[in-house]
Amino acid sequence: MRFVVFLDIDGVLNTRTTVKRTPYGYTGIDDARVKILANAIEKCGGGDIVLSSDWKVMDRNHEDYRYLVSKLGQCGLEISDHTIDKERKRGLGVKEYLELHPEIEEFVILDDQKFDFEHYKKIWERLLITNGIERAEFASRTPAVEAILFRDYIKA
Question: Which region holds residue 87: left if phi is over 0, alpha if psi is between -120 and 50, else beta?
């Protein structure tokens, strides 16, 4: 069984109140929020991070992308892959990723926006809407079990 977290960065690992900055001066990443993510993934028995954030379009050698990788790495996390989507259709990007990777049996999505997720029932039920990971809430009125467990692990 393979567990995956589809991860947005802005609004999940940082918020408007974040004071840290990336090398290029954009909103940085809060170490405490990375630790929350790492702990939740560990409590799930481990899992892969698939980047669904706009950060995925950065060149892998860009200083800000290396900054992201370094921040995740401090808690033993690494990005295993990323979705491919255009025109802010993250739901479609996750759907297509899952179709290409049938070995993924369980997943959650962490994002601060709803985009087109609601168009895909299986995806919508696993979406946790955030304003900082510690304030994750269910998008769906009937969340999937893995979304319920993952949120409980975040709140613990």
Answer: left
Query: Residue 40 in contact with residue 154, Cβ under 8 Å?
Result: yes
Instruction: Name the CATH code of domain 2-155 (choices 2.50.20, 1.10.3470, 3.40.50, 1.10.10).
Output: 3.40.50
First to last CA, the chain: 24
> Which of 95-104's residues contact partners 24+ apart within 8 Å by CB, and which partners?
95/120, 95/123, 97/6, 97/50, 98/123, 101/2, 101/4, 103/2, 104/2, 104/3, 104/4
Domain boundaries, the chain: 2-155
CA distance 121 to 118: 6
Q: In this predicted model, what pLDDT tens digit does every residue of 74-102 receive, in sequence order?
A: 999 999 999 998 888 999 999 999 999 99
Percent of the chain whose pLDDT exceeds 70 = 99
Strand-pair partners of 21: 27
pTM of the model: 0.97
